Amino acid sequence: MIESTSAATSHRATEILSNVRELCDPLLREAISSLPEPLRRMGGYHLGWWDADGTATPQPVGKALRPALTVCSAVACGAGPPTALAAAAAVELVHNFTLLHDDIMDADQVRRGRPAVWTVWGIPDAMLLGDALHALAVRVLVDGLPAPTATAAVTRLETTVIEMCHGQHADCRFRSGGHVDVEEYARMAMGKTGALMGCACALGALCAQSEPPTVAAMDTFGRELGMAFQFVDDLIGIWGDPKVTGKPASDLARHTMSLPVVSALGSGTEAAAELATMFGRDPGTAAMDTARAAALVESAGGRQCAQQLAERRVRAAIAALADPAAAADLMVLAGMVSRRNH
Amino acid sequence: MIESTSAATSHRATEILSNVRELCDPLLREAISSLPEPLRRMGGYHLGWWDADGTATPQPVGKALRPALTVCSAVACGAGPPTALAAAAAVELVHNFTLLHDDIMDADQVRRGRPAVWTVWGIPDAMLLGDALHALAVRVLVDGLPAPTATAAVTRLETTVIEMCHGQHADCRFRSGGHVDVEEYARMAMGKTGALMGCACALGALCAQSEPPTVAAMDTFGRELGMAFQFVDDLIGIWGDPKVTGKPASDLARHTMSLPVVSALGSGTEAAAELATMFGRDPGTAAMDTARAAALVESAGGRQCAQQLAERRVRAAIAALADPAAAADLMVLAGMVSRRNH
């Protein structure tokens, strides 16, 4: 799964992401500027626009994949990119609101290679910024769409937020121990990652005034792609190059119950038994031998399982598209998700 | 300020609150029921419907003042109560979302005489429930109103949430020490308490299809009343009877920077100097002599100041009403807020 994609497709994906970022940026900056201080300053820091002291950063952080899905979905449904910019910005704001809250819950100190907001300003302010970005997302969506589309879009976005809360609850439960099987893991990933990518695509279709079956098909495309994204993320978390990913440590060092691990632990092999013992130790007192653990996950079939499930989800995503020819950019993004290495 | 109101007015206020609660209850229960487990169970616990194990509670908790403001504002603007129920439920859900998050930030272990959600299910689940209630509030509002009203209502509600985040940020800052004057305190209270009560009333007017000047007047009424509510709350926090308030300890024991304290500390009196010394001690190591502190706040004029400012705010609220005769129930609620003892 983690292999170099054809240079042309990779170049086109970068181009799409960069174009959408440029289109959405003014709307996002206007939204963040409307926040009272210090929420404005914290929000711009989290979005990678400036340092904690307000100095502008040289380049943007984050992939902006979700806004790209919204804009490309609208285009695939026959609308122009400007129609979908408010929805794209709203999805990006919801994504960032959940990142802020998840980082607190998971005690993750690093976000996109920089100190997480809660480590800089403290937990209360990071919670409040998350709440404010959630509110801002809804306001941007409502302000940027005609009333009937706005109400349908808001209902869909907030239903997605509730599904994400449920997914994050399951993820927290998995982190605190107990048995997890591949099916439970997939359900959690659907809530945590699939739901918002599905919503991103569905909103693009809504903005294009598509009929309900098309909106549903775009939702399925995004959800399946989101699952693939998560499974590839899990593979990168173990076998990715820290220099490329920007993530400081292997998921294994933190005892993260990712798909390869869950699959390996459920394999009934000898490797699974040894892995279970390693995962059973207190991460605070015994450092994980991550090279050994990665080898065990691989020999227990966890790597192959995650690769196969990711590929299956990408195929299911593409199968959901009624007219793949009209969705060329979505196909490029799907290819990027399945072959990315960071 | 804390004196018994006339029995008839007090009876009428209780009646209004109980009627509105009964009208809103089905909508709130339907909304909470739509949440996936365990968010549904936690939500119903927080709203006082059942215990942590799911056993139904004998009587409701919480005053439901904000939904009453929404419904009575709609009635004052010439509409029937059913028109405003979705907005009333949405305001109550936002109020509860902020309580859940504030209790985490403030480390408040007791909410309405029962263990706060975060002490029962942990901080991550309490954060997620808050996020889910925020999403649910918006969904209820959009689902229950015609599209053009819904979009105006959602924009107003989310603008209010951002103002509340800013108010809570200031409150957290005050808690962590540093000088606060009466003006700064009033600004914080406007964000934390006034904004949502103003929004509650404005949404009632919006649901009644009122013109912008009427909506603005109702917003002012609610904001001024909300400030009075907060100032009376501060008085109760020091001089209220714990048996009546259900709050375990005086605000003074927790070094809370409430209006009487802020006013007393800024009085330039000898009592202020002694009080400042008492507030300067670490609450973890030296227990506050709350009787002595209360006497100092009073002799430094803090009690009188809070009483006067609360009365002024109630008068300003009533002055904002274009037609007090049409707003009889709002006048009753204003009387209750200014004379309550819990």
Automatic annotation (TrEMBL), chains A, B:
Q: Which UniProt keywords apply?
A: Magnesium, Metal-binding, Transferase
Q: Please name the Pfam families in this protein's record.
A: polyprenyl_synt
SUPFAM superfamilies (alphabetical): Terpenoid synthases
The domain of life for this entry's organism is Bacteria
Metal-binding is among the record's keywords: yes
Q: Record's InterPro entries?
A: Isoprenoid_synthase_dom_sf (IPR008949), Polyprenyl_synt (IPR000092), Polyprenyl_synt_CS (IPR033749)
Q: In which pathway does it act?
A: Isoprenoid biosynthesis
The record's similarity note reads: Belongs to the FPP/GGPP synthase family.
Listed name of the protein: Polyprenyl synthetase family protein
